[in-house]
């Protein structure tokens, strides 16, 4: 084929909407609020072209560093040649979802704290996994 290096090249299946899920997103997705410091996942919605990030950021997790009326600024770590570079990108809120990556860590910390308290009451030491 010809010069296939456009902005949205290689996104035929990446940005495609699911079966019977075409059209504009629900208002609840548009009305979500984000605050500075939130951990978010970037998941591009192919139905909305405005505020769409580049395909390399699809599936990336970042931290919100700026909030504007319709978009959020996200700090994403991206591999550039031989080092990890922090990238600051603006993405419309329809392409951003709250991340669940920290839930397991918080649950593990709470379980460890509870185990420590029980061991302290019993007068024993505990070895964490």
Automatic annotation (TrEMBL):
<dbReference type="GO" id="GO:0006412">
    <property type="term" value="P:translation"/>
</dbReference>
<dbReference type="InterPro" id="IPR036948">
    <property type="entry name" value="Ribosomal_eL21_sf"/>
</dbReference>
<protein>
    <submittedName>
        <fullName>Ribosomal protein L21e, putative</fullName>
    </submittedName>
</protein>
<dbReference type="GO" id="GO:0022625">
    <property type="term" value="C:cytosolic large ribosomal subunit"/>
</dbReference>
<dbReference type="GO" id="GO:0003735">
    <property type="term" value="F:structural constituent of ribosome"/>
</dbReference>
<comment type="similarity">
    <text>Belongs to the eukaryotic ribosomal protein eL21 family.</text>
</comment>
<dbReference type="InterPro" id="IPR018259">
    <property type="entry name" value="Ribosomal_eL21_CS"/>
</dbReference>
<keyword id="KW-0687">Ribonucleoprotein</keyword>
<dbReference type="InterPro" id="IPR001147">
    <property type="entry name" value="Ribosomal_eL21"/>
</dbReference>
<keyword id="KW-0689">Ribosomal protein</keyword>
<dbReference type="Pfam" id="PF01157">
    <property type="entry name" value="Ribosomal_L21e"/>
</dbReference>
<dbReference type="InterPro" id="IPR008991">
    <property type="entry name" value="Translation_prot_SH3-like_sf"/>
</dbReference>
